[in-house]
Structures are given as structure tokens and as C-alpha cells.
Specification:
The complex is a heterodimer of chains A (231) and B (224). By secondary structure, chain A is α/β, with parallel strands linked by helices. Chain A has helices at residues 49-56, 95-106, 111-121, 137-149, 167-182, 222-230, and strands at residues 10-20, 23-33, 38-42, 64-70, 80-83, 155-159, 186-191, 203-208, 211-215. Chain A has a 6-stranded mixed sheet, sandwiched between helices. In chain A, strands 2-1-4 form a 3-stranded antiparallel sheet, covered by helices on one side. Chain B has one domain (3-222). By secondary structure, chain B is an all-alpha fold. Classes of the chains: A alpha/beta (231), B mainly alpha (224).
């Protein structure tokens, strides 16, 4: 059985501020992302990439401004797949138990079949009965990706997905993300600099001090966006 | 997926992870055992004082145990940011609270039931005929501690001085529960036992009020 992805989702951030106490994580940010776009978010630490992703999946509310979605019912938030810095899975459960648990919460149909399929897809079919705490960083990242894909969401968010991965795992990740991009999903990937993963992007935006300072849609080159971010 | 089925799935996960690690149950049981044994040295088990003060000391031990048990219930979700994964997956955030409350009540009740015979032996208290009443008081008291404690654990988990904040908020808030539970238990363990329905009613109202407040405002406690 094939699990069709939910329709792609478009996002529009309109004059968004996000403040933590006196510190602005995002300031007057306006950004539109078309359905099916694969957007790379580049920027230094603290430039607002993670905050933007957490607002995009509705984990955090903007202090000011608005976020609207296209491709979802009115007054509804989209089910987004989010792969964050942390794995967002339980170390005390096995890879299979983790995925079955989240599949149950998400109301995934034929969840055992779906979980088996995803575990094979991320190359963990053989280790599905092992506790996550026994996994390497790369394997944990694979479980995290499988968890994010459970409900076949139309919006996928990756927060520095290659952080802590060895070159082999990074190449696997880039290949897997390329497949997801080609399936037509909207993807936002935050990155520090030019990498295997960055080459997947159809558009790149650089954030600095919580605002957009360069966008390939506005004429900036990919290299300039990533070069500045990596400095 | 509905609220109750989400809560049931979450409760199943809580029970599975706890019985796999046995972190909370083992530490709280050892803690309550030590407290009850230490308290037993302060009273002569043949005296009336033992009957009068024993239940109060027992609930004090349960309260300390609960503060140990409640602290990690949201902190554990922060280790791998699983709370964010739960918030993204559930249809209603109240399901997260329901599951945490269910698990905390269950673990607390388990500790209480295992400690009850030890307490009865050390304090020379008989409760055989009043076991249903005692179980009702334990259930309502534990539920009250769990409901209020889970809400405070969610608040304190996001605070800077979280280890200090929870007990600081918990003890004054749970004082009414402690008083009512103790009074009901004292009356049930008296030489001529009787059920103090006023206390039971108070515990039930406390539980309902806090559950309703959590249902209405719990979502905001989980926000960043």
C-alpha cells in the first residue's frame, strides 16, 4: 500500500516578530513560500532559523504579525513533519515502538504496515527492535525522519538535519531529502552553510538578526547566500 | 483521533517507559518507606497519639513522594524535545495532561498501596473493615495531588529554577488536599471508624475544579 503525501502547503509570514523577553528572534519578517518549494534557510547561530521553523509548524506563536497557509482548510493548522535538533523520540522505546506510538497519536491508518515501510525506507528494518538509546546519532536521525514522515505531511521542516552526522550519513540524508523534494512536498531546511543538503534547495534565503537579508528569488546567488551564512 | 484515545495511547507509553526504567517507582517507594520507618520511631505504637498522628505523617510522606514523582514528568519530555513531538501529534493538548495525570495517579496509588501494610504494622493501626473507604480517600487524594501537581510541573519545567520552583508552588497549593485526606484517613483508622463524607466531598470538588481549569487553560501551559 502506498501512502500518498498530503497536498503541498504554501506559507506566508506577514510582518512577523517573535520576542523572548527583550530579545527579538524574528523582527518584521515577511516571507512567502510557494507549495512544493524546497527552501534553504541559511544564517548564523541566533539569526532566527529555528524560531521561524517552530512558528511554521505552530509550536510557537508569533509575538506580532501573522502566518497563513494555503492548501489547508480554513482555521486549521497543517500537520507538519518536523525534524529538529533534538530527535523528538523516546530513548527508552525501540525504533518500532516509537513510530507505532506516534502513528497511533496521528491516527495513521494501517499503522503497523506504514511503520514497517518507513523503517525499511530509512534503513532501520534490521534494528527496529533495538532501543533508541543504543543508536548512533545518524541512526537516531533516521528514526526522527521516519517519525516526521508518518502522516505523509505536505509540509516538512528540517532544522540543521546534517548536524552531527558523518559524511556517509550526510550523503544518505541528502539522497533521502532529494526523494522527498521530488515528491512535491513543501520543504524548509535550515542550514549553516553550503553542504550536500544545501544543493537540494530550489530557493535559498539568508536570515540575519531575525529578518531576511538575501533571497535567491530577489536576485541573490545561492553561493552568496551560503557564503555569508557560513562565515 | 479523539481526546480519550490519544490520552490512552499516551498513558500506555508512560506506563511502558516507567516499568522499563522503574526510575520513579523505585525511588519514591524507598523514600516513603524510609520516611514511614523514621516517623514510627517517634511514637509508641500502643498509644492513641500513634492513631491520631499516624495518618497525617503518612500523607506527608505521600506528599514528599509525589513531589519527587511530579518533577520529572515534564522534564523527561524535554530531554529529546518529545513534548514538541507530542504537541504536533495530538489533536487536543489536554490529552497530554490527562495521560500525565493518569500515570502520576497510578504510580502514586501503587506506592500508597504497597506502603499501607507497612504503615499499619509499624503504627499498630487496623483498617481491615474500612479498606474501601481508605481506597476511596487514597484515590481522590492522589488524583488531587496529581492534577494540581501535573499543572505545576508543566509550569515549572519551563522555568529557570525549576527544581526549586515545583516544591515551592506545590506545598501551599496541596495543603487543602493534605488536610482533607488526613482527616478522612484519621476517621477511618480511628478505634470506632466512620466515613467523613464532608472530606470526601471536598476532595472530589477539588479534583473536578482543577481538572476543569486544566482542560480550559492547559494548552497555554505547554506553549513556549
Amino acid at each position: 500500500m502506498a501512502w500518498a503525501a498530503e497536498p503541498s502547503i504554501g506559507l506566508r509570514f506577514e510582518k512577523v516578530d517573535k520576542r523572548y523577553g527583550a530579545v527579538y528572534a524574528l523582527r518584521n519578517l515577511t516571507l512567502a513560500i510557494a507549495p512544493g518549494e524546497c527552501l534553504a534557510l541559511a544564517g548564523r547561530n541566533g539569526s532566527g532559523k529555528t524560531t521561524l521553523l517552530r512558528i511554521a509548524c505552530c509550536l510557537t506563536r508569533p509575538t506580532r504579525g501573522s502566518l497563513s497557509f494555503s492548501g489547508v482548510a480554513e482555521n486549521q493548522n497543517p500537520k507538519a513533519g518536523f525534524v529538529a535538533h533534538a530527535t523528538m523520540v523516546y530513548d527508552e522505546l525501540t525504533a518500532e515502538e516509537n513510530l507505532l506510538f506516534f502513528a497511533k497519536l496521528l491516527g495513521v491508518a494501517n499503522r503497523r504496515q506504514r511503520v514497517d515501510e518507513l523503517l525499511c525506507e530509512v534503513g532501520l528494518g534490521e534494528r527496529k527492535d533495538s532501543l533508541v538509546r543504543t543508536f548512533s546519532r545518524g541512526m537516531r536521525q533516521r528514526v526522527a525522519i521516519a517519525r516526521a514522515l508518518l502522516a505523509a505531511p505536505g509540509l516538512l521542516l528540517f532544522d540543521e538535519p546534517a548536524a552531527g552526522l558523518d559524511p556517509e550519513a550526510t550523503i544518505w540524508l541528502a539522497g533521502h531529502l532529494a526523494k522527498l523534494r521530488d515528491s512535491g512536498r513543501t520543504m524548509l531546511i535550515s542550514l549553516h552553510g553550503q553542504s550536500e543538503v544545501a544543493r537540494l534547495a530550489t530557493r535559498a534565503v539568508r536570515l540575519d538578526a531575525g529578518g531576511v537579508v538575501a533571497d535567491t528569488r530577489s536576485g541573490a546567488t545561492f553561493q552568496s547566500v551560503f557564503t555569508f551564512a557560513g562565515e | 483521533m479523539g481526546l480519550l484515545s490519544n490520552a490512552a495511547a499516551l498513558l500506555g507509553k508512560e506506563v511502558r517507559t516507567e516499568f522499563r526504567s522503574r526510575e520513579l517507582l523505585s525511588t519514591t517507594m524507598v523514600f516513603v518507606l524510609i520516611v514511614v520507618v523514621l516517623f514510627s520511631f517517634t511514637f509508641d505504637p500502643t498509644t492513641n497519639e500513634s492513631h491520631r498522628f499516624g495518618p497525617g505523617l503518612l500523607w506527608l510522606a505521600f506528599l514528599f513522594a509525589a513531589s519527587l514523582m511530579l518533577q520529572p514528568c515534564f522534564l523527561r519530555e524535554q530531554v529529546n524535545d518529545t513534548l514538541s513531538a507530542l504537541r504536533l501529534a495530538v489533536s487536543d493538548p489536554f490529552a497530554i495532561f490527562l495521560a500525565k495525570i493518569g500515570a502520576n495517579t497510578l504510580f502514586l496509588l501503587l506506592t500508597e498501596l504497597l506502603m499501607l501494610p507497612v504503615f499499619a504494622a509499624l503504627f499498630n493501626v487496623s483498617f481491615r473493615g474500612e479498606l474501601p473507604g481508605i481506597l476511596l480517600a487514597f484515590f481522590l487524594g492522589s488524583l488531587g495531588i496529581s492534577v494540581a501537581g501535573t499543572a505545576l510541573a508543566a509550569i515549572s519545567a519551563q522555568a529557570r529554577m525549576r527544581e526549586l520552583l515545583l516544591p515551592l508552588l506545590l506545598l501551599p497549593l496541596l495543603a487543602p488536599i493534605l488536610v482533607a485526606s488526613t482527616e478522612v484517613t484519621v476517621s477511618l483508622m480511628a478505634p470506632e471508624p466512620f466515613m467523613q463524607w464532608k472530606g470526601i466531598g471536598f476532595l472530589a470538588v477539588f479534583d473536578v475544579v482543577f481538572l476543569t481549569a486544566l482542560w480550559l487553560f492547559g494548552e497555554y501551559l505547554l506553549e513556549e
